[in-house]
Here is the input.
Amino acid sequence: MITSKFNSWEYEEEWRIFHPESGTLYGYETKALIGIYFGSAMEFTHQKIITLILCGQNPTVQLYRGKRNTESFLLDFEPLNYTPYIERKNAHDT
Here is the structure.
């Protein structure tokens, strides 16, 4: 199931990485990550945790939130603008 994809979602050009050994730590260059696409049903708390970890290491990562299309079996992705709490707080305090 993890290696197949519904044909209607081919346009996503998704990459999946599988490693032969579970429990092994693999590393990638931080700049290799260019975007994160969150599914429509993903909890906000989980989005925030992932964003804090990954965007803290690479602030140029583009974020997108999926939204179910009401007319077809598709997800529409919209840009998700993330401003860390400390930046929002500093902007509010000035």
